[in-house]
Automatic annotation (TrEMBL):
Name under which the protein is recorded: Cyclin
Stretches for region Disordered: 1-24, 58-77
Residues covered by the Cyclin C-terminal domain: 346-468
Parts forming coiled coils: none
Amino acid sequence: MYHSMARQANMNKENAPGSNIQKPISRITRARAKALGISGDALPLQAKHESNRVLQPNCKRASSDNRPTDVGSSFQSKRRAVLKEVTNMPLNDLNTKIINGTKIQASKNTRTVVEWNTMVVPAVCVGPQDQKGKIKVTDDMTKQSVKELRQITAQLKLVNDLERKPSIYYNPKALRSSLPKGEIHIFNKVEAANDQVIVDIDSKHKDPQMCSLYAAEIYNNLRAAELKGKPLVNYMKTVQRDITQEMRGILIDWLVEVCEEYKLKSETLYLTVTLIDQYLSKMYIEKQRLQLLGITCMLIASKYEEIIAPRVEDFCFITDGTYTRREVLDMEHQVVDMLSFQISVPTVIKFLRRFILAAQSSYKVPIVELEYLANYLAELTLTEYSFLKFPPSLIAASAVFLAKWTLDQVEHPWNPTLEHYTNYKASKLKETVLALQDIQLNKEATLHAIRQKYMQYKFNKVATLISQKPVKPLS
């Protein structure tokens, strides 16, 4: 009985109001009280322990008398400013600073969100009003974070666009103004002096081997060089006494068959004939050694033009053992010594390819027969001694003129584009075109190697094509 009365007395003491309530050890501020959802100076014992646990991450903060009293304003104070004006900076520095600034901005935003989550998630229940305020702050923070992330994404996209496609490529006027004076401007069309449109044949080529930026200068140099290395037009009378024009034609006709046998390029054939004429213009030779000169010049041209040139033994074999290896090598030494090792000379094929490209620009679809026929007509001049008086560029332009006329007698074969790139007017081609047409129409020709070559199906049998009307538009 005594024990029960004592226990009841102890319980009454514990339940007495304000008898044994302990004052909080530390000072409770209004901000902390608001965060814990309580008011007044009294703090329950259980709430005190939980407040110590909740507010522990912020124990290093100063007194809240001089600090913002809501969580939303605390988050706003940690925001970083938007990227500053950097338009006057170089492109590389601009890209570097934007990327670095974006990474820092994203990193700080992530760290701020983590700190905010740690600070605003207490382990106690809050009142309805404070719960609404908390939800509003959370929504504001979420919207702000999404807005900043969108800005960061837009900045990264801008950086990628700057790195991939600089703005100068979108603005043709800026590109033209950025080029120095005298620079070659490559556009689709060029206006001629007489207001006629000239197609730019170098604007469509992306192959670096075409040298589109330097093609005009290259061919200007070739036009000057073709006059320096030109052979004598009358060396059969002034230098040679044992060979004739017919012998020269027979030799070249046989060399065409040799090129077909060893599958050599057209450049090799043209260079071979040029080297032969240059040697015969300066050095006398007996007719027994004319074939030796021919295979030696083809050996030199093969070494210069071909990837895999035929061996010396191959050329000895093709002559049926008429000449030995030593004789070929000795003749090679004489030829290169006479030429002073100046092997690179402009030939007809070098001009012909560019002129064909200019001729094809007037068609929506390139005509294969035009290319084959122009090459066929140009090769017909190799065996003709009389064509030595014409420069290679003039022969190439005449071959293109006659090829276009052979395929179409309705439209005029010459246009401003061809006149611009060949530097020849139609009237300047009259003598060469008429002489070339005589060879084309000659059915009694005794040299058939070139004609048989272009009678093959791989060349669309262009050797059978003959113009139905004589060439008239040359005046």
